[in-house]
Amino acid sequence: MERQKESAAKNESKHFYQLDDEFHVIFEGCHKERILGVVQDMMSKNFNRVRLLSLSEKINTDIIITQHEQILDAIKNQDK
């Protein structure tokens, strides 16, 4: 999360999205393969194309970081 926050602060959108992709692999280690499958489906070629197009615009990384922090908290608290 810290690397993603740093990347957002520096407005390094491409690196931010690379870290975003890495973050979603967390579900594999949590034995949540079904969730990982859904996330991977969402990150299809069309979704990646939209993300890459957004690199030229100011993205709202705060929302993504907040969502990731909520996901991590849910995992830590073993929310179902």
TrEMBL record:
This is FCD domain-containing protein. GO terms for molecular function: DNA binding. The keyword Ubl conjugation does not apply. Residues 2-79 form the GntR C-terminal domain. Keywords: DNA-binding, Transcription, Transcription regulation. Pfam families: FCD (PF07729). Gene3D superfamilies: GntR ligand-binding domain-like (1.20.120.530). It comes from the Bacteria. The keyword Transcription applies.
